[in-house]
């Protein structure tokens, strides 16, 4: 089995989905000849031809909107939005149409489409290329929101997203695209879209995260282990629907929880997770929940982005406060 | 690439005259019947068949009866906010009459006439405007899109539908209708652009009723016509008299045939007038005068076609009475069925959110049903 990067796993899943199902189309800006600016669609045009891999004009709104039309007609479009800062024009189509077409036609027309986009900071990119907009999508009923954090999960979750009968926003952490390699078996096996992943088992504290910050959280868990603290690390991955039970089971075991995400803290998905723990798991808590997240600021240009992103040091500081709470 | 000499020559031209002409345009305008119903030119072939003309007439009369009934139901608290198509019946009836059954209509919210002609039932339309999602679960025309409320946002859907037809090599066309206000939106500009560059089988039709709620089209754009917006997308655009159903049908049929044959998209601007309020929630007297509106009744599309039919001895008083009786009966029966339709259960709020209901929603569904029972 070859060891591949996360972006190569995305490519592998796209190729697998296209080979398995002739209705799967890839469309977006520069996805064809160029193979995508991050090369996520590399080689697909050559393999599947220009009727299945479409270089679109530069217009995000119509990329999302034509995907609704294609999906209603029985195709499974996988649209790429080039950078997260360019994804906002798609919200109109996703909120007003893709997410509610099934409901408003009582299932007569449906919208099995995926909008993929790189997401998050940490690659010294230009302005508007480093945002983490997942909470905006997670607030829209009828959508699924998925953020993979490893090559194997990117492969399995993207296959699941493409095969899902409803619209999915699939946000790929740019910072992890080439950060590590992992063996990925191209077995066509999808992962569930409603379960969180326990990345590391532990007993003293639960660290909940997703996407790029799994890296810092796992590093923090290593540091803590060296100090004799056993941290459980949960990758939520499917932000909508959220696997509440998976989080609650862990918190019931550890009694302490820190939630880590890159998006701004206020109304971030962390707030929803904390609320659910408060609603259903309060009695198992031994300390207040802490959130380590992006600040409620504009994403800074790259010279200061490390001061914005949740660092291992910030995570450790929060964990120590939560552990020290009596 | 042009040769170096040619580039030099072009640069020379530019220095001399300041610009190189790229394109010149004129906007075709077509009308067959004047407002009094007199033919102004030979009618298209289809109009030689009296059955076709009577069918168009019936479609418009049905739309008007439907509108009148819907407004009456709203005024008596038995229907939600409703957008009447009064005076604009020729637009969507003309478009729908030119379409094949397996084409796809993507309507805005003022195309009841066209939807009814496509086989959407008046009960379904009343259910939609009466706040019931089942109204968009069409039993006929079941690939047609439901009413689109966010202005112009369905134009990109037409691109996707047309692309689906092209990829499957089907001889089908997506027909998308939107209002004059929609032409100010990026959705429409983006859709026309993509349809043009991909040569898609899509026909876009502007119902230019001259008012986007309170803003007249003169304040919507500096362009002399809305049809010319096609030119910047590299596609053909034209105007028709939108109160002449024969002209709307002829232009649409021509555009559909072109698209079906691989000739690409087309934009038609149908010039009409909104005789009524924007919706039942609107009071148009706040922004336009009664006499101005009244003057436009002289262009009424239904009277126009009826005058022609009568002058040609294709229609008489008995026909009219019979039609009105039949149409009124159909609408009354539809209204009765609508009013007798019990509301959906609260569980249906949840049941179509996803194909497989996630656990969170299963719990919320139970909570909602429990709340109802309490």
Textual characterization of the structure:
- The complex is a heterodimer of chains A (326) and B (374).
- By secondary structure, chain A is an alpha/beta fold.
- Chain A has twelve helices and 14 strands.
- Chain A has two domains: 3-183, Rossmann fold (3-Layer(aba) Sandwich); 197-324, Rossmann fold, CATH 3.40.50.920.
- In chain A, strand 10, helix 8 (214-226) and strand 11 (231-235) form a beta-alpha-beta unit.
- In chain A, helix 1 (6-20) packs parallel to helix 7 and helix 8 crosses helix 12.
- The model of chain A has no long low-confidence stretch (mean pLDDT 97).
- Chain B has 374 residues and is of the alpha/beta class.
- Chain B folds into two domains: 25-343, Rossmann fold (3-Layer(aba) Sandwich), CATH 3.40.50; 346-374, no CATH class.
- Chain B is 45% helix and 9% strand.
- Chain B has helices spanning 4-17, 50-75, 89-98, 112-118, 122-129, 155-167, 186-197, 245-260, 290-296, 301-311, 317-340, 348-351, 359-373, and strands at residues 28-30, 104-106, 174-179, 202-208, 211-212, 215-216, 236-241, 266-271.
- In chain B, strand 3, helix 7 and strand 4 (202-208) form a beta-alpha-beta unit.
- In chain B, helix 2 (50-75) crosses helix 3, helix 3 (89-98) runs parallel beside helix 8 (245-260) and helix 5 packs across helix 11 (317-340).
- The longest helix of chain B has 26 residues, at 50-75.
């Amino acid at each position: 089995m070859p060891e591949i990067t996360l972006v190569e796993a995305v490519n592998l899943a796209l190729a697998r989905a296209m080979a398995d199902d002739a209705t799967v189309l890839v469309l977006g800006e520069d996805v064809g000849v160029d193979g995508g600016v991050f090369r996520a669609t590399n080689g697909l045009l050559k393999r599947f031809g220009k009727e299945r891999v479409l270089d679109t004009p530069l217009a995000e709104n119509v990329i999302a909107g034509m995907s609704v039309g294609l999906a209603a007609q029985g195709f499974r479009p996988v649209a790429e939005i080039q950078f997260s800062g360019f994804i906002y024009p798609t919200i109109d189509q996703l909120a007003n149409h893709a997410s509610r077409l099934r409901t408003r036609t009582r299932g007569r027309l449906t919208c099995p489409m995926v909008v993929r986009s790189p997401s998050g900071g940490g690659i010294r990119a230009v302005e508007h290329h480093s945002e983490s907009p997942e909470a905006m999508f997670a607030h829209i009923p009828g959508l699924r929101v998925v953020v993979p954090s490893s090559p194997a999960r990117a492969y399995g979750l993207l296959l699941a997203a493409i095969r899902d009968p409803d619209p999915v926003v699939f946000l790929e952490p740019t910072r992890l695209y080439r950060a590590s390699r992992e063996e990925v078996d191209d077995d066509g096996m999808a992962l569930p879209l409603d379960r969180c992943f326990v990345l590391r088992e532990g007993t003293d504290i639960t660290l909940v995260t997703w996407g790029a910050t799994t890296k810092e959280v796992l590093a923090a868990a290593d540091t803590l282990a060296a100090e004799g603290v056993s941290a459980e690390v949960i990758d939520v991955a499917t932000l909508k629907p959220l696997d509440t039970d998976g989080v609650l089971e862990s918190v019931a075991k550890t009694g302490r929880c820190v939630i880590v995400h890159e998006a701004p803290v206020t109304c971030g998905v962390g707030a929803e997770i904390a609320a659910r723990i408060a609603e259903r798991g309060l009695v198992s808590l031994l300390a207040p929940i802490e959130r380590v997240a992006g600040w409620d600021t504009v994403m800074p240009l790259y010279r200061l982005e490390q001061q914005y992103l949740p660092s291992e040091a910030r995570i450790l500081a929060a964990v120590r406060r939560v552990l020290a709470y009596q | 690439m042009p040769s170096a000499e040619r580039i030099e020559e072009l640069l020379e031209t530019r220095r001399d005259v300041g610009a190189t002409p790229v394109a010149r345009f004129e906007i075709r305008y077509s009308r067959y019947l004047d407002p009094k119903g007199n033919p102004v030119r030979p009618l298209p072939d289809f109009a030689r068949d009296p059955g076709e003309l009577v069918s168009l007439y019936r479609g418009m009369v049905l739309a008007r009866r439907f509108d009148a009934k819907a407004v009456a139901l709203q005024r008596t608290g038995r229907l939600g906010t409703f957008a009447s198509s009064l005076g604009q019946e020729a637009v969507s009836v003309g478009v729908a009459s030119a379409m094949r059954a397996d084409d796809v209509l993507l309507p805005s919210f003022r195309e009841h006439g066209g939807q009814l002609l496509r086989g959407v039932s008046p009960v379904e339309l009343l259910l939609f405007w009466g706040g019931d999602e089942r109204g968009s679960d069409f039993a006929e025309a079941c690939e047609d899109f439901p009413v689109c409320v966010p202005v112009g946002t369905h134009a990109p859907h037409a691109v996707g539908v047309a692309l689906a037809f092209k990829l499957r090599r089907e001889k089908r066309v997506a027909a998308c209708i939107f209002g004059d206000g929609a032409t100010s939106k990026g959705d429409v500009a983006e859709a026309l652009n993509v349809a043009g560059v991909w040569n898609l089988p899509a026909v876009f039709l502007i119902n230019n009723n001259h008012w986007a709620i309170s803003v007249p089209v003169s304040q919507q754009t500096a362009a002399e016509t809305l049809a010319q917006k096609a030119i910047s997308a590299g596609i053909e655009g034209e105007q028709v008299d939108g109160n002449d159903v024969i002209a709307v049908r002829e232009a649409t049929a021509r555009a559909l045939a072109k698209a079906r044959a691989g000739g690409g998209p087309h934009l038609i601007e149908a010039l009409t007038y909104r005789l009524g309020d924007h919706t039942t929630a609107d009071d148009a007297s706040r922004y336009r005068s009664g006499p101005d509106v009244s003057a436009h009744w002289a262009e009424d599309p239904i009277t126009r076609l009826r005058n022609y039919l009568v002058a040609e001895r294709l229609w008489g008083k008995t026909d009219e009475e019979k039609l009105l009786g039949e149409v009124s009966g159909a609408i009354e029966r539809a209204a009765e069925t609508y009013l007798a339709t019990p509301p959906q259960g609260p569980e249906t709020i949840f049941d179509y959110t996803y194909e497989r209901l996630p656990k969170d929603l299963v719990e919320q569904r139970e909570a909602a049903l429990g709340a109802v029972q309490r």
